[in-house]
């Protein structure tokens, strides 16, 4: 369903829940959000007020004749979820190979699947399903990994624009270390294709309102020095271009990287030397970091996509998220389809909670447990920070884009009307906790991107 602009300012009033900081979850029991017709949030009102008084109060910014939606008490507004790492071409492999290690899984499942996207009809079929489904699951923004195929990558760009999702898209670059013919013939061919895809994104969405380009080295073992150097130069030529890359997923991955890229003391030194480590760099995994890696990430303001589900399934190791946060590193959540079997950031919050508890049990250090407020932050504002979009999405600030979910908890396991009815205001924190841990996509009634309804259970 292609989103259509409403052409009218709109006010949403009811419970509004979003992260202010990693430790503060703001709950407005009787909040109101004013959304301009172009999808920009014009105001956030935190007091109970009648619809007519809202129109009068904000008449000076164009809301005197705004339409108003009043949410029923079992519903609340929640920021759109942000997936910082998803492999779109691996979608058909979801739930397959869960008993594999990373190396076996790549060679048996990933490489053959990714190599098949020379078939553009397959790309159209799969990518349409990826985008529509992730929107239905609440992911309003996704950083996509793709394949070496220019045509297929551009099809993904077309899909996100048609369905109205916010995304980062670029062509995967790989010339060595792969199997099943999942590699490009030369560095020149790889760089040429990468630039074509960056140019296509800029042509289709010149202002970057929904989709933005990236360069995408598959990782240290797959891109020799001349390719890494060329990608770094490409980033320098295209202002605002992102970088999506894997780093320190396994110890063997690190060893292969340092063997191919001689003279570096750690994985991140290589990326940094080639100009690929910066504030728009999204580093997937980062499980086995050295102190110098952490220093490089902090100094360059790169971000990390934490993929708890896939790291568990492939037994890569446990990401020490608490240490990253304490170091001041930007961290968001990723689903890492298809090594992760569920392409839902809603589910990733639960996985991140479980992984942090296992780390606390293993180390005996309670500090590793991620608090509930932190889980919500990682799924929303944390992801926005990693993607360098914190001024635009991730929460409900004035001037941000209205990317939001309408969540209805009536059918969530363990929820009854005592949580929203009665003499008191109800227990809004309990509502959101029960949704995070017991709910599913059936609770997501509407999904908004840029102020437009693009998905949800209430959408035909």
Walkthrough of the structure:
The chain has 460 residues and is an alpha/beta fold. The protein has two domains: 10-79 and 395-455, Urease, subunit C, domain 1 (Roll), CATH 2.30.40.10; 81-386, Metal-dependent hydrolases (TIM Barrel, Alpha-Beta Barrel). Helix content is 36%, strand content 22%. It contains 14 helices and 17 strands. The chain has helices at residues 51-57, 102-115, 120-136, 150-163, 187-204, 225-237, 251-260, 267-273, 291-300, 308-313, 321-326, 345-363, 372-386, 428-438; strands spanning 10-21, 24-35, 41-45, 67-70, 75-79, 81-87, 139-145, 166-169, 172-173, 211-217, 242-247, 281-285, 303-306, 330-333, 404-408, 444-449, 452-455. Strands 6, 7, 8, 9, 10, 11, 12, 13 and 14 form a nine-stranded parallel β-sheet that branches. Strands 1, 2, 3, 4, 5, 15, 16 and 17 form an eight-stranded mixed β-sheet that branches. Strand 12 (281-285), helix 9 (291-300) and strand 13 (303-306) form a beta-alpha-beta unit. The longest helix is centred in the last third of the chain and has 19 residues, at 345-363. The chain is globular. Mean pLDDT is 95; it is low at 1-6.
